[in-house]
Amino acid sequence: MRRVVVSAMLACAAGGCVSATRAAARVETVIGGLKNAEDAGDSEPLVIDFATPFDAKGARSSVLAWTPLVEEAARRFGVDRALLLAVIDVESGGNPFAMSPKGARGLMQLMPATGLLQGADDLFDPYQNVRAGARLLDTLLAKYGEVSLALAAYNAGDGAVRKNGGAIPLYGETQNYVRRVMERVARYRR
User: Fold this and answer.
1) What does 1-50 look like in DSSP terms, one character per residue?
2) I need a labelling partner for 128 at 20 to 30 A (CA). Which of 33, 73, 117, 173 fits?
3) Mean pLDDT lowest for which of 14-18, 67-71, 157-161, 186-190?
4) pLDDT tens-digit profile of 131-158?
5) Which candidate in 28, 91, 146, 173 is catalytic?
């Protein structure tokens, strides 16, 4: 069984601080999920390092701290690891407690209804969030066959891409989002 080493200092989300104890409790869910992962028999420890705390505004942690979770989700759902890291980077900057003004939550900024459709009932649980986001991206990639369209649907919604004739909607936010994620994909592949 995989041993998990967690160093949790202090994590603060935009709505207020979460103590190290509460952060560790959230990570406990991740640990439980990893026990059931396909590669749970690995004897190497999985290190999730929260040593860089979030500030009161939910400032960025290292996105790369989530690489073990991302790699597991990438293998399971067949989604490019660099794409998942790039989405996390743009969506939350690696903050598992991020919450948008519209209510999107966690690392991959999923809406609660979307998360439930993808099998996640606690979007602040990094394991559930990354798996649900990877599952959603896998579905969108299969539907659109192109990364940029899948990202546009991830950001603006599937309906917005359909209404725009299967093209990236002309929303400035969505066009900027697709560009930013694609730039980061290239960085994470290096």
Assistant:
1) ---EEEEE--EEETTEEE-HHHHHHHHHHHHHHHHTSTTTT--SPEEEEE
2) 173
3) 14-18
4) 999 999 999 999 999 999 999 999 999 9
5) 91
Q: Residue 5: exposed, middle, or buried by beta-carbon count in 10 A (0-12, 13-18, 19+)?
A: exposed
- Domains along the sequence of the chain with CATH: 4-189 (1.10.530.10)
Active site residue 91: yes
Output the six-digit token pair for 82: 């660099």
pLDDT at residue 190 in the model: 87
For residues 138 and 70, what is the distance between their CA atoms, to the nearest angstrom?
A: 13
For residue 30, give the nearest of 60, 61, 65, 56 by alpha carbon.
Answer: 65
Segment among 18-22, 74-78, 99-103, 172-176 with least mean pLDDT: 18-22
SS (H, E, C) 146-190: CHHHHHHHHHHCHHHHHHCCCCCCCCHHHHHHHHHHHHHHHHHHC
Cα angle, residue 69 at apex, residues 100 and 26 outer, rounded to 5°:
60
Distance CA 161, CA 158 (A): 5
